[in-house]
Amino acid sequence: MAHKKTDATPAKARRPKSIDLASFLEGIGPPKPTSFSLDPWQKEAIEKIQHGDVIVSVPTGSGKTHVAVEAARHAMDDEKTVLYTSPLKALSNTKFTEFSKIFGPNRVGILTGERRVNPYSEMLVMTTEILRNLLYDAASGEIDLRLDTLGLVILDEAQFLADPERGVVWEETIIFCPIQTRLLLLSASIGNPEELATWMSNIRPSTCHLVRHDNRSVPLRSGYMHPNGAFTPLFKTLDTPTTPNEENLHPKTKQLFHTYEQNTLGPRRPSRRS
Length: 274
What we know:
The protein is an alpha/beta fold. It folds into two domains: 40-212, Rossmann fold, CATH 3.40.50.300; 219-266, no CATH class. Helix content is 36%, strand content 16%. The protein contains ten helices and ten strands. The chain has helices at residues 11-14, 21-25, 40-48, 64-77, 89-103, 128-139, 145-148, 167-176, 193-203, 251-265, and strands at residues 53-57, 81-86, 108-111, 116-117, 123-127, 150-155, 182-187, 208-212, 223-225, 231-233. β6 (150-155), α8 and β7 form a beta-alpha-beta unit. It is elongated and about 75 Å long. The model has no long low-confidence stretch (mean pLDDT 86).
């Protein structure tokens, strides 16, 4: 009688090896130049913004800024004013520099608590609080030519709507925006985009379209750097586990954790038994 050959290798030995640092770092860096083409979700967002408000909910690095640029280009070609808002002055400064290179320095301005450049340009970058204040002034009767020609408002980092302290600023901005203005909300981490789109459709004159894309264009890898400068993959696998836990940790990461604990807390004393 023939006996079925069995694998006597222990289960632990059959587990795949933990990834090494060279494999972890492979491919990281500037990508090779390729011909640019729009993703389907980008085409959808650019088309939908011509007919109503749009929420773009896609992972970081997917190309949200390109949608904002094309939407702004269409509005400016129609001789409409474009306002881009962000929650941070630093991000506003970065976008001001970026948009100035794309559209030209004479067509882009910035308005924050610290900077005032080309305040009546075709495209104006500002913090969301500044825009909310402009809308407040307009509601009280103050005339602002920028709002009379306002065709597009881009609210970047729209997940701040859920912020317990600053979320009201985004809500009021959406509520007080002129009815002729298109709203483009951009975020990588809105928790309830469907609910938000429904709310905006109910309070705004046009339907709010949700454009969602879940696949990462840029893979996410997790590493750990010890205070002594040592660097290692955080997990055993190249991709970040869906449910990270201690079992997923890379052996070298565990070793570095232990070293750090020893250096900061000292050796553990054995517990006393009564």
